Amino acid sequence: MILGDYHTHTVFSHGKDEIIDNVVAAKNAGLKQVAISDHGLGHIAFGVRRKEIAEMRRQIDNAQEQHPEIKVMLGIEANLRSFDGSIDMRPEEDGYFDVILAGYHKFIWAKNVKEAFTYVIGSMWRNKFGYSKKYLQKYTDAYVKAIKSGRIDVITHLNYGVKTDVKQVAQAAKDYGVILELNGKRISMTDEEVMEVVNVGPKLIVNSDAHSADRVGDFSVPMGLVERLGIDKKLIVNWDDVPKFKNRKK
């Protein structure tokens, strides 16, 4: 069974419920660990504010005291914001978090004005009219550079928002010990792309991407895919085990 849910949102970004609500829901679902991983600082509409991080940590510590039987972690779903693979966090902020997830979202502050057009707005255009080989590789390289940065634990919902060569991303993830997520809201890869990833053999993680407490621990979408495609559950780091994330200096 799945023992931890590491991608859940709260009122600090795009979620409906409080941190304590997600923790209680995770405990009631029989989980051993839960992470509060709200949207990154550069999300225009729903990003966590820097001034709120300390309050999030305080609430998580309080929740941990109230519910010692489940490990409660502070995470963040950072945004990939540039073709150079950078994310919307300062390196010195990494130590605030127990786990850093990262993925692509549309409504973000890009690294600069040029990339606001080429990277963000350009992705919307290409999703409608198609990707050239050049830009398919550029988005792929962005993910690979992010993985190689050593700052990220988990890549969320691969191929959501932008297309990549998933085999190249999977190989980088395997080589650098970064985990690829099978997302609880959507699988943005085709079955063929999923099996390309599986055949490369990086570690996988199943998360709910819950935006309300009643969906914490809901893994029906990704586990349905796992069962349908016959994916070896030994690849899933939170199946009958809990994953080890980077040891960040707090």
Task: Record the SSE blueprint.
Layout: E1 4-8, H1 19-28, E2 33-39, H2 53-66, E3 71-79, E4 99-103, H3 113-129, H4 133-148, E5 154-155, H5 166-176, E6 179-183, H6 191-200, E7 204-207, H7 220-229
Parallel strand pairs: 1-2, 2-3, 3-4, 4-5, 5-6, 6-7
Helix pairs in contact: 4-5, 5-6
Mean pLDDT: 95
Main sheet: strands, sense, barrel: 7 strands, parallel
Shape: globular
Q: What is the H-and-E element order?
A: EHEHEEHHEHEHEH
CATH class: Alpha Beta
Count of all domains: 1
Uncertain regions spanning at least 5 consecutive residues: none
Radius of gyration: 17 Å
Helical segment count:
7
Helical amount among residues, as a percent range? Answer: 25-40%
How far apart are the termini? 31 Å
Which structural class is indicated by helix and strand composition? alpha/beta
Q: How much strand?
A: 5-15%
Query: Any idea of the CATH topology?
Result: TIM Barrel
* Order of neighbouring strands in the sheet with most strands: 1-2-3-4-5-6-7
* CATH level-two architecture: Alpha-Beta Barrel
Tell me how many strands there are.
7
CATH superfamily membership: Metal-dependent hydrolases
